[in-house]
Amino acid sequence: MSLPGKAASKPRGRQPFYRDLSFQVLAGMALGVAVGYWFPKLGINLQPVGDAFIRVIQMLIGPIIFCTVCSGIAGVRDFKKVGRVAIKALFYFEVVTSLALVIGLVVINVLKPGVGMNVDMSTVHSSAVDAYVAKAHHVVTTSEFLLNVIPHTAISAFAGGDVLQVLFFSVLFAFGLAAIGERARPAMDLIDSVSSALFWIIGLTMKVAPLAAFGAIAFTVSKFGFGTLISLGKLILEFYLTCALFIVLILWPIAKVNGFSLLRLMRYIGAELLLVIGTSSSETVFPQLIDKLERLGCEKSVVGLVFPTAYTFNHDGTCLYFAAAAVFLAQATNTPMTWHDQLVLLAVLLLTSKGAAGVSGAAIAVLAATLAASNTIPVESIALILGIHKALSSAFVFTNIVGNSVATIVVANWEKALNRTALRNELKAGFKPMDTSIGALKQSGGSSAGS
Fold first, then answer.
1. Radius of gyration of the chain (CA)
2. N or C: which end of the chain has fewer CB within 10 A?
3. What residues does 298 pair with on adjacent strands?
4. Is 7 inside a domain boundary?
5. What are the backbone dihedrals phi and psi of residue 276, each rounded to the nearest 5 degrees, phi first?
6. CA nearest 162: which of 304, 352, 355, 358?
7. Where are the membrane-spanning stretches (predicted)?
């Protein structure tokens, strides 16, 4: 006897390589590079293509977090489990991001890409830096950050797109549903239906992801060109190497200890990783990764809590960026910095980064604001890396996504909320998209009604 809804979840058969989303995104990026290089005027005008895709995804993130958290927590009705998962997740985040800082510091001090540049700050135009400092002006104290977790109204959390505020409201609402028991059943059925509709929209939107990657890359190459990349190539190569070392030395052993292959996980989320390289935005893959992590066997309640929180607290790649950029600027401007000075500065950056979540250009904004407050490295020196920030952000957003995916699986494993059979089978087979066509959905509805 078939299970209800089985028709909708039946995976498609093996498809030609050119229909694979990862290949399409990669092809879009390659075409974007060509257009940006040979037709720069056209490339500049393609910026809205990438921006439109990002905005559609941003529009859906709040409702998806709400539906996922409510369905997960209210479904298990275990308040103690929520607190336990949160504590384990935060412990993991702080340990791993601290390790990221250590690796970032060691590599930048060993390779010294900025030594010998001898930049004269009087020749550096710093007007562009002021905008980034202004973006982070509200990230001042820990108390302000904690107070900002609570939205002024439930609607303002969704309207502002603040992931942490949406998560805060969602957890409270889920507790309320769990507390009233069976009376919450109609609301839970509605939330599940809304969630299915939202993920259908995501599936439809992802069909234009290659076009979004094409537009974003074409704009980047047109605006900055290859000259900027070559002139600061040492820093780019050093940072890419640092990200690779972090993945190999930290994330790979963590995955190994927890019984899954990091390489297979990266292949499983390959389309999302390529997409964040093209768009330099982690938000573009948020809903898709929630769905994939649940398919990998992580309980919905754990995914709903850990993954959104990781977007605020687990900035592995961003911490690597802070280490590389701050010390590089000190080296380039001949600013003396002892190991003690570097550790103090980066400890401050590790804290202030938590308050910058959801701010456009958050990484460079926090870096600029912190350097201005520390009064050690000339804040104007950030102008040196503005031209290559896009190249650097692609790498650290990529690392953030891998780190957040690993963190969710690890915490689920610690919590014994991981279906290891599903994890093993999914990673071995690779991701196969569900049939989300209208016909399949109608067939599913008919099957369910007749069961």
1. 22
2. N
3. 418
4. no
5. -70, -25
6. 358
7. 21-40, 52-77, 89-111, 154-177, 197-219, 239-257, 343-371, 391-414
DSSP string, 256-307: HHTTS-HHHHHHHTHHHHHHHHHH--GGGGHHHHHHHHHHTTB-HHHHHHHH
The angle subtended at Cα 409 by Cα 106 and Cα 269, nearest 5°, is 80
Q: What is the pLDDT of residues 293-348, one digit of tens each?
A: 999 999 988 998 899 888 878 889 988 998 899 899 899 888 888 888 888 877 77
Beta bridge partner(s), residue 11: 434
Domain annotation covers residue 442: no
What are the b/e assignments for 48-66, b being 16+ CB within 10 Å? ebbbebbebbeebbbbbbb
User: Which tokens belong to 192?
Assistant: 């599940």
Residue 278 lies in a domain: yes
Query: Six-digit token pair at 341?
Result: 């000075």
Q: Sign (positive/negative) of CA torsion 318, 319, 323, 329?
A: positive
In the chain the first and final C-alpha atoms are separated, in Å, by: 9
Quick check: 177 and 184 in contact, CB under 8 A? yes
Say if residues 89 and 306 touch (Cβ distance below 8 Å). yes
> What residues make up the domain containing 208?
15-437
Burial 72-97 (b: 16+ CB within 10 A, else e): bbbbbeeeebbeebeebbbebbeebb
- Residue 124: pLDDT band (50, 70, 90) is low
Q: Are the C-beta atoms of 329 and 385 separated by less than 8 Å?
A: yes
Residue 451: pLDDT over 70: no
Total domains in the fold of the chain: 1
How far, in Å, CA of 221 to CA of 40, rounded? 8
CB contact set of 152 (below 8 Å; sequence gap of 6+) = none
* 3-class secondary structure, 168: helix
CATH number of the domain at 120, please: 1.10.3860.10
CA gap 297, 413 in Å, rounded: 10
Q: What is the sign, positive or negative, of the torsion defined by CA atoms of 389, 394, 399, 405?
A: positive
**8 A C-beta contact, residue 387 and residue 233:** no
Helix (H, G, I), strand (E, B) or coil at 434: strand
pLDDT reported for residue 234: 84
392 in a structural domain:
yes
Contact (Cβ atoms closer than 8 angstroms) between residue 399 and residue 246? yes
> Hey, what amino acid is at 71?
S
Question: Letter for the amino acid at 109?
Answer: N
DSSP 126: -
